Amino acid sequence: MLLAALQGVSELFPISSLGHTVLIPRLLQWHVDEGDDSFLAFVVVLHLGTAIALLVYYRATWVRIVRAFAASIARGRFDDSRDEKLAWLLVVGTIPVGILGVLFQASVKSLFASPIPVAIFLMLNALVMFAGEALRRRQSAQSGREAKPIERLTWLQSAGIGVAQSLALLPGISRSGASIIAGLMVDLDHEDAATYSFLLATPVILLASVLEIPDLFKPGVVVGPVEAIAGCVLAGLTAYASVAFLTRYFQHNDLRPFGWYCLLAGATALVLFSTKVIA
Amino acid sequence: MKALAIVLAVVFVGCAILSIAHPLEPSTVTRALGFSSDKAHAKHPFLYFVLAVLSLIWLRFQSAQPAR
Q: Which residue among B33, B61, B66 places its CB closest to the CB of A103?
């Protein structure tokens, strides 16, 4: 249940859920086999809870997006609707992460999902957030450009945010952190960059978990229905609370506190694992 | 550009079929593309299917009459 709560929070906070899934069990000496089918199936359930929480939180937006998307396909052309532009921006932004994720997730994870690379990537995640925030402040100070709304993103900019999101395939790099920084670089404000990041993450997390549901019924998988439902609900509740908190937080604040956390956590983990204080 | 959309749709349908039938010997490339049977998964055919559908939607957007 602790893992479920951790997943719900760390999936949306810009601190890398995958990195925490690798580091926390080892730091707490849980002896979890992350390659075990039962563990992977439980993680699928937690992702499903997170995706449902995101869908519920942004339900009104998703209803408008899906309606506008269907209308534009039926019509066979774009109109000037804000929701239609947002729908197609999300499609364009999801394509890179969909392709890169399906093709490379397994090999990247098998290469880097051990504590020392994760600790290094976590520190790198922090440096990217610090650098992104500094660049954004410099851009604003020099050019005095106003932040633009999400629907004024270009297709290329949305694809760029999608590519940035794919960096989260590296355990220790945060999906939301990378995509929020990419959003800031193309003149979104923090609140819109975070909102776009969460909207972009929703179909990816939802589809990835739904497509892995058959794994729950593979022979040898031992995830009880009570454990599965409780994990899904707990991950969903913590994810909902996280997205509610973060959307308010980013109205007036930036990524630097999360950068300090990642830097500290990464450095601590690097010292502990490289000096073999924790094996 | 219409021809490109059609070619892409055909290529993605072909990839989807290969990732369902997975007839190729396992290697780094065939495993990543989902064309080998050692780690069969629904994600690959789904991705190729979605990309094929998006290619056809792109074709439809090019074929539709402009608004008056």
A: B33
Close Cβ partners of A62 (under 8 Å, ≥ 6 residues apart):
A55, A202
Q: What pTM, to 2 d.p., does this model score?
A: 0.88
How do the domains of chain A map onto residue ranges? 2-274
Rounded Cα distance between A64 and A37, Å, is: 38
Beta bridge pairs of residue B36 = B24
**Distance separating alpha carbons of residues A145 and A29, to the nearest angstrom:** 49
Chain B residues with CB-CB distance to A95 below 8 A: 51, 54
Residue A248 near residue A7, CB atoms below 8 Å: no
CB atoms within 10 A of CB A143: 9
**Percentages helix, strand, coil for chain B, rounded to the nearest 5?**
75, 5, 25
Residues with Cβ < 8 Å from A167, sequence gap 6 or more? A173, A178
Tell which residue, A231, A136, A140, has the closest CA to residue A184.
Answer: A136
Q: Which amino acid is at B40?
A: A
Helices (H), chain A: 2-12, 17-27, 37-57, 59-75, 82-112, 115-143, 155-166, 175-185, 190-211, 225-252, 256-274
Taking only the tens of pLDDT, chain A with its 279 residues reads 777 888 888 889 999 888 888 888 888 887 776 666 677 777 888 888 999 999 999 999 999 999 999 999 988 888 878 899 999 999 999 999 999 988 888 788 777 778 899 999 999 999 999 999 999 888 878 777 777 889 899 999 999 999 999 998 888 899 999 999 999 999 899 999 999 999 999 998 898 888 877 777 777 766 677 888 888 899 999 999 999 999 999 999 999 999 999 999 999 999 998 887 776
ipTM: 0.82
- A256, two tokens: 């630097």
Task: Establish if A271 touches chain B: CB-CB under 8 angstroms.
Answer: no
Domain ranges in chain B?
2-63
What CA–CA distance (Å, rounded) separates A201 from A183? 13
Interface test with A, best of B61, B63, B65, B68 (most A CBs within 10 A): B61
Contact B36, B22 (CB under 8 A): yes
